[in-house]
Write a structure and sequence with these properties.
By secondary structure, the chain is mainly α. The protein is built from one helix and no strands. It is rod-shaped, with a radius of gyration of 30 Å.
Length: about 70
């Protein structure tokens, strides 16, 4: 009976160690994924900013060409 209890406790300890290892890897992986998500957010904001500036420049150029009576090439 005591041997079975000791075997059970040993398996509990092994399970606990595996769960702690899994949790440690999960936390590290989640941190890496959050870092990547922040980088994607930064790229998206930069892209949208450049896109808006580019659209504004094209719009301004188009308005100037229309006022001057010329067409965009």
């Amino acid at each position: 009976m005591i041997e079975r209890l000791l075997a059970y406790l040993e398996q509990c300890d092994k399970s606990k160690a595996l769960l702690e290892e899994w949790l440690s890897h999960r936390i590290k992986l989640e941190a890496k994924l959050r870092k990547l998500a922040r980088q994607f957010d930064k790229w998206e904001l930069e892209f949208n900013s450049v896109k808006k500036k580019g659209s504004a420049a094209i719009s301004t150029e188009a308005e100037a060409n229309i006022s001057a009576g010329t067409l965009l090439a």
